[in-house]
Each structure stands twice: as C-alpha cells, then as structure tokens.
Amino acid sequence: xxxxxxxxxxxxxxxxxxxxxxxxxxxxxxxxxxxxxxxxxxxxxxxxxxxxxxxxxxxxxxxxxxxxxxxxxxxxxxxxxxxxxxxxxxxxxxxxxxxxxxxxxxxxxxxxxxxxxxxxxxxxxxxxxxxxxxxxxxxxxxxxxxxxxxxxxxxxxxxxxxxxxxxxxxxxxxxxxxxxxxxxxxxxxxxx
Length: 192
Prior knowledge:
By secondary structure, the protein is of the alpha+beta class. Helix content is 20%, strand content 28%. It folds into 2 domains: 1-104, Winged helix-like DNA-binding domain superfamily/Winged helix DNA-binding domain (Arc Repressor Mutant, subunit A, Orthogonal Bundle); 105-189, Umud Fragment, subunit A. The protein has 3 helices and 11 strands. A 7-stranded antiparallel sheet has the order 5-6-11-7-8-9-10, with no helix packed on it. A two-stranded antiparallel sheet has the order 1-2. A two-stranded antiparallel sheet has the order 3-4. Strand 9 and strand 10 form a beta hairpin.
C-alpha cells in the first residue's frame, strides 16, 4: 500500500469508525465538520488521494457511498522499521498490518510446552500461530495430534510414511500412521 500522510491516517480512521458506528459512509460535510476544514474541496482532495492509494472506494454520483477497501486499522499496524543495530528514524504512519481480518480466517494459536523445537527458535511458553486448511509440504512446521496430545514438529513424508521431526537432537522422529495434522505453523508469538 502507498504511504499515507498523518492527516490522511486521521481521515481514514474517522471514516472507518463512522462506517462501523453507522453502517454507511460519511458525507463530505460530515468529514469537513469533524476536522474543521473551511472548504469541502479539502475533504474531496483527501478522499480522492485515499481512493487513489487503494484505501477507499466510492460510487460516482451517489451520496454516502464511501467504502473501505483496505484498512490499516483491522489488524496490528506495522509502523515502519526498527533497527537492531544503528538507530533509524521512526515514522508515525501505518504501511501495512500484521494479521488482517482476512488473514485470520482458519487461524488459531497453541501454547508450546517443551523444548523439542528449540533449534527452530520455538521455545517453551511461546505461542504458535496455526492456519488450518492449507497445503502442507515437506519441511513445513505443523501442529499435529498424536493419540490425545497435540505437538508441533517439522512435517516429512517419505513415500507412504509420514514423520514428525523435532528440532532438537534429544528427541527422535515420530512416525504417524494417520494424518492428524491440525495445520501449518505460520508464526510464533513470544511474550517478553
């Protein structure tokens, strides 16, 4: 998505909240009054920019037809980059989101217990973010059920055999007879 100015972020946030609260888009006059613009032309320019940048859509000639195409407020906003070495300038705008509403479909989390995946940087107490109903390939990290317990391991299929491979040499691979894969691990969350 194209970057927004701080005023465009404020206007987009207002429009998002207005639609959520009312079920329809604000008029140009609603936006003008809220922000105290002297002229409706300023509102029209901002809305046109938000449309051109892919955040809004609007039906021509129809009142209150503003719709949100993409909202950086529907997930965790990514505000820019942060250095782990020499400091960088932080910009106060959202360039994208982490875990948008669409990305959260068929997603759940599991709390990790144990150290069998430590060399994959998944530690005891972490949460794995798992997506159901996706294709699983050799080398993917998966959540699976063995007996009555869930586990997280690397997935490996060799001919007609399926194995769950730990990322710790202290543990042995496990062959599973039935495919009880819950889903593919797409992320790890760690509280610090």
